[in-house]
Amino acid sequence: MAKKILIIDDEPNLVKILESRLKVNGYDVISASDGKQGLDKVRQDKPDLVILDLMLPQLHGYEVCRQLRADSAHKDIPIVMLTASGKARDIQEGINQGANAYIAKPFKPEALLGIIKALLWE
Fold first, then answer.
1. What is the C-alpha to C-alpha distance for residues 76 and 59, in angstroms, rounded to an integer?
2. Architecture of 4-119 per CATH?
3. What sign results for the dihedral spanned by CA atoms 33, 38, 42, 44?
């Protein structure tokens, strides 16, 4: 059974690129375009991993991450923050909020796939 990945990002073009790349690599992909919708999809669809942007409508990525880590039903889902903000303090805050990995845009798709495989123990 294919692993399910949820992309929470408000950039439609990036979501399409990620969906395509992940599907070619055998993953089921779902997406959400804001933080609140992302939390709802986690609860409804129970993904195996979340790719999370920071700057989101409704709820900021840090808040989404914090809420997932505080929820016993979803606290163990790996979270990869994929965002344009690559400042050291932002990276540290992402890790502090519970992200398993932090990747700054622009990024190399192979690097993202490597992190996903490592986090999913593939």
1. 20
2. 3-Layer(aba) Sandwich (3.40)
3. negative
Cβ(80)–Cβ(50) under 8 Å? yes
Those residues whose C-beta lies under 8 Å from the C-beta of residue 47, and which sit 6 or more positions away, are 4, 5, 6, 30, 41, 77
Among 52, 48, 47, residue whose Cα is nearest residue 11: 52
The answer to pTM > 0.90 is: yes
Task: Give me the residue spans of the domains in the chain.
Answer: 4-119
Could you give the CA distance from residue 15 to residue 121 in angstroms, rounded to a whole number?
Answer: 24
In tens digits, what is the pLDDT along the chain, a chain of 122 residues? 899 999 999 999 999 999 999 999 999 999 999 999 999 999 999 999 999 999 999 999 999 999 999 999 999 999 999 988 777 888 888 889 899 999 988 889 899 999 999 999 97
